[in-house]
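Hello Y.,

Per our agreement to keep a running log of every chain we model this quarter, I'm adding this entry. I've kept the format consistent with earlier entries: sequence first, then predicted structure.
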Amino acid sequence: MTATAAPSRQRLPSALGDSYTIDRELGRGGMATVYLAQDLRHDRLVALKVLHPEIAEAVGAERFLREIRTAARLNHPHILPLFDSGAADGFLYYVMPYIEGESLRQTLERLGQIPVEDAIGYVQEMASALDYSHRQGVVHRDVKPENVMLHEGIAMLMDFGIAKGLDSDTSGPLTITGMFVGTPAYVSPEQAFGESTIDGRSDQFSLACMLHEMITGEQPFTGRTAQAIIAQRMSETTPGLSLSDRVTSEVAAAVRRAMSVDPQNRFPTIREFAAALTPDGRSTRASLRFLAGPAASASKSVAVLPFANMSTDPENEYLADGIAEEIINALSKVRTLRVTSRAISFAMKGRANDVAEVGRKLKVSTVLDGSVRRAGNRIRVSAELVNAADGAQLWAERYDREMEDVFAIQDDIAESIVRALRVILGDAERKALKARTPDIRAYEYYLRGRQYLDLRRKSLEYAREMFRRAVEVDPDYASAHAGLADCSSLMFLLFETNDEYVEQAEVSSERALELEPDLAEAHHARGMAYSCRQDYPNSNREFETAMRLDPTFAEAPVYYGRNLLWQGRTEDALRVLLVALALRPEDYGSAAMVKMAYTNLGQKAEADAARRRALKLMELRLELNPDDPRAWILAACQYAGMHDRARAEEGIRRALAIDDDGMIHYNAACAHALLGDSDKAIDYLEGAIRRGWHHKEWLSHDPDFEFVRALPRYQAVLATI
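Predicted structure for the entry above:
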């Protein structure tokens, strides 16, 4: 093959002939592009990987297929098998099963860290696969999170022998336009420097690097360039793990040994490395493996962008937003479909969005965009589902209907997305996709209420009024009763100890349950109402019922976690908040509460890592929406905890410039307390109380105020709440 004969993407379908048809692009890396394809002979979906043209040209078909043939003979429960490979019209490709789940890289991006027990369990599964392959004479050479699929709770390694196929001549490692075979963050020193003999200890080094990253949330070797990262391998100081209650000295020592620069100092075999992680032979079955249920496939992920309001009346903005939000809520019920939350998707509002950029920023494979035009009682909804990888349209439709048909439109869009992504639904999920059909006027008020439901006082007051109007129009609208109850509870808990709010929360939540006893939102609202009376046993029971009825309903574990923190049940709170974060990985508020829980438990290493993760999520949020005052003020708290005064004060200034709410003042007090500014901290705390904030239980358990609690002035302020 010559440079002028490099194959183009347009020729791929014809090159594959009658064997495979391309559905869509799933993603691409440094060496290959991955497609979802149909195996025509066996009538099954497969993942088809095609080497980039310049890689294929440099490797050559004979060398590549020889190594692939060797890898195809591997047969192990934790190895993703090779179905097929070939060379056709200049393309070099190989075929693997298409499985549900996500890669370890996607899991790390979603969760930040993985509990030690889970991480060790995954590593031992991978070590079992690598030990088997080493005994067959096959060294992987590119062990990294991107090459690990998590399928039904187990780890499966893929791309065995691929790196060897790219690096099998005797002249040293294959180098193409400055790239070498392997991945800088994980490659062993001997492989990075092109030694001719590589054995299983090279994979051991890479696996130890992965374990380090899973536990800490950070790669052990970083740098601005590949060369800088590789140069760190020669450091005399090997990055170590912090000893804590969750990282034993045995685990830390095993990882340190496996990451030795000299292969002679590592474990003789990868099996011995895995055994050293649990010297007593105990099982490390995972907690996160059942927290959020079946993992959603990375290729079956969607971001529903806010629909554009094309009506002449700007007041119809709530309708366009509401339709998009209802579609998000419906799709979120599908356990095997990963749906970006409203908070993140709606941060893209008002931008000229490039689909590829949206997919990259939100880490989804598909994007749903649309528009709404209303004229009197007529509505036109246009929607389009696009593949983020290549911009291909997967589905599109336009609906011209009466307003009363808006529920049927939402149902049809959600079901069409499920069909386009080839998601198989269970009976409960199929039922959940069907929208309830309240009175259309009540529905419009409900959408306005949902649009303003957040933790700011003015927003809560407006949302509460909209929900009140919704139930006036349709007294049998359970979701609107639940929304009215939630707003009333939050007003009481955060801003004003007025019995009217508690009574409204109780009446509305009870009515919601009478109307729909199996509605998760109704049980959540009842739990909030009980918490206003500090009836925590009943409150906890209702939150747990909501989580059982709808495991995808993220609000339940978020507020249940808060509730448990108020009660001082920190370990239970942490467990529940990790569920919330698994359901909504981009929720910086839950991430901040996870950090708070670790701090209260005295687990400094975990708290520091949780703070870094929360800050990363806040910075992402502010990149998407720089006018989010809550993200600014919570970021200020994280910076203050890191003693970065300049950034903390900038965050406080930016937040207060956007909103002077009591919650903002409370968190400004937290930031100044962490910075050691006790007088400013109490000034802001007094300002928060003047603006209606009065949550004494939260203040009593907030570790940010640890160093000001003994001050007489703080005690005097506390007595006023």
